[in-house]
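Lab notebook, bench 4. The sequencing result for the construct came back, and we need a structural model before the next group meeting so we can plan mutations. Quick request posted to the team channel:

Model the 3D structure of this chain.
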Amino acid sequence: MGDDKLTGQCLNNIGATYTGLGEIPKALEYLRLSLEVRRRLQDVKGQAATLNNIGLAYDARSDRSNALLFYRQSLAKLPVSAIQPEWAGSGNLGIVYTALTDYGRALEYHHRESAVAGALGNRRGEAATLHNIGVFMICFMINAGR
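Done. Here's the predicted structure in token form:
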């Protein structure tokens, strides 16, 4: 079972690497394999991480509807108390909603991410959230001027 868990993690990491390289079809292939392994093992935290990375892959190719779908699935997998400090599902939703100019929802998710980071004592997460809120404000002001 330990080897299977490591396989799921490795497949997830390979998929995330391909996303970073801009090779989205390959990324999605590895991420879907990771998700299959993690579902079979009932690894809920692993599933959340992989679903988030699938969302990132779709977001990288500006497929906002699929990005939102997978970010929401990822966020729904875990209660807030179980979210790892490096996991930023709420912030990813906020970023997509900013791109879609749905500023109310964007700010809601950025504040949610900030609350999670604060509760976990995650200063890096708090800094990332402040950055995302700054980007949100710039986008809002640009679009408000139209």
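Residues 79-146 form one domain.
Will bring this to the meeting.
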